[in-house]
Write a structure and sequence with these properties.
Number of strands: 2
Strand order of the largest sheet: 1-2
Number of helices: 5
Order of helices and strands: HHHEEHH
Distance between the termini: 48 Å
Length: about 130
């Protein structure tokens, strides 16, 4: 029996797992009208997705510059914008739900995206900001 194995980037498997969880969540929460909905499950997905963004952006900075010491969302900004000046217009398309997201449009030097600030509030002060999830 011949089995071939190839490396799969771990971030891709995380993405697929988060996507699967989001798909399952969509059976209970209609994404077209419920932007203010929050729950333990949504919080878990939110924290996982933001953590994965952090990991992937750090890896991207390292792939662009092996000597990169960028270790935070604001440090990633200057390294990424220098190579990808149009990154702020990046779109996430979710046609099944009729959604087009621009998650980086409010990112600027020294100012993280709103969802990252909310992520930190949920992560560090969940008892006060659970509704941000």
């Amino acid at each position: 029996m011949g089995i071939q194995r190839t490396d799969t980037p771990i971030h891709w498997n995380y993405f697929l797992a988060i996507e699967d969880d989001l798909e399952r969540l969509s059976r209970f929460v209609d994404f077209s009208e419920n932007d203010e909905t929050f729950s333990i499950e949504i919080s878990r997905l939110f924290l996982s997705a933001c953590s994965e963004v952090d990991v992937v952006l750090k890896q991207l900075c390292k792939s662009l510059n092996p000597d990169s010491t960028a270790a935070s969302i604001n440090a990633y900004y200057s390294e990424l914008i220098a190579v990808y000046p149009n990154i702020l217009s990046f779109e996430v398309l979710m046609p099944k739900y009729g959604l087009t997201l621009h998650p980086l449009e409010d990112w600027s030097e020294g100012n993280s995206p709103f969802w990252w600030r909310d992520h930190n509030k949920v992560k560090h002060h969940r008892h006060e900001h659970f509704d941000k999830a």
